[in-house]
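Data deposition worksheet. Section B asks for the primary sequence of the deposited chain exactly as it was used as input, without tags or linkers unless they were present during the calculation. Section C holds the resulting structure in token form. Section D is free text for depositor observations; keep each observation to a single sentence. Incomplete worksheets are returned to the depositor.
Section A, Depositor: J.P.
Section B:
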Amino acid sequence: MFGLVVRFDLYENGTEGFDQLAEETAPLIRSQEPGTLIYTCHEVEGEANARIFYELYRDREAFEEHER
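Section C:
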């Protein structure tokens, strides 16, 4: 397995667009990239402009395919 945790610190006026993009793309990535085991985004408690992506892939090759 290959995992990745990514934190995004967003501009105050950027959260709505970021959240909409994550909401639209995350289900597509999970359904169309079979090597993706977990791909989800969470808000950070107490930090309204921060988001955390959790990504888990079958292996490094699956991650590299996602990156392409």
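Section D:
The chain is about 40% helix and 40% strand.
The two ends are 18 Å apart (CA to CA).
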